[in-house]
Amino acid sequence: MTTTEPTVDRLGEGRSAAVVIASTSAARGEAADTTGPILVDWLRGRGYDCPDPIVVRDGEPVGEALRELLLTPAEAARPRIVVTSGGTGLAPDDRTPEFTAELLERQSPGLIYAMWRKGLESTSSAVMSRGVAGVRGRTFVINFPGSKGGVRDGITVIDDLLEHIQTSVEDTTDHGPRV
Question: CB neighbours (10 Å) of residue 32?
Fold first, then answer.
């Protein structure tokens, strides 16, 4: 009798990803980053080359990290996926969505709506997240909330769509004839 191991979908094989954590307390070493490891493990499990999370203070440091990932390298060297966690709430320095939006060429609000809907299954505060999602060049960017529950909900939603997102952004889908 032989057993076969389940095949792991290695969608990200040959592609890179990056995770940016917006947390002033984690950046100062006053608290542990609890969401970055979850996101990195998810992306690595899907085959992406993903370094450890970039942990920065809320506010302008988030913008600096995103610009470094999305503007500095040549497009071919940029990560195919950039995921942020944190900085999406209502505090004065929660500016992750604003920094992300200014770098996107096209937004995809339906992805955020789907994450809100999933989050509402367990907490009414899910709708307080102001994240954005979209594309710059061939890079998909999405803001997840800063809570472990919000990250897990986001992964549940986005994981099911990741292959379609990636093939759409890379323009490798077969749309068939356009009428």
Answer: 11
Using alpha carbons, select from 138, 148, 141, 144 the residue that is nearest to residue 169. 138
pTM, to two decimals: 0.90
H or E element, residue 79? none
Gap between the Cα atoms of 39 and 176, Å rounded: 34
Sorted by where each begins, the domain ranges of the chain are: 17-169
Return contacts of 94-98, CB within 8 angstroms, 24+ apart: 94/22, 94/58, 94/130, 95/58, 95/59, 95/60, 95/62, 95/63, 96/22, 96/58, 96/62, 96/131, 96/143, 97/130, 97/131, 97/132, 97/143
* Mean pLDDT over each residue of the chain, to the nearest integer: 92
- C-beta neighbour count of 79 within 10 angstroms: 23
Q: Which CATH number is 17-169's, of 3.40.50.2300, 3.40.50.880, 3.40.980.10, 3.40.50.1100?
A: 3.40.980.10
Q: What percent of the chain has pLDDT over 90?
A: 87
**How large is the average pLDDT for residues 64-74?**
97
Q: Which residues contact 4 (CB under 8 A, 6 or more apart)?
A: none
Task: Give the pLDDT confidence of 79-95 residue by residue, as tens digits.
Answer: 999 999 999 999 999 99
Q: Extract the tokens encoding 118.
A: 């999933």
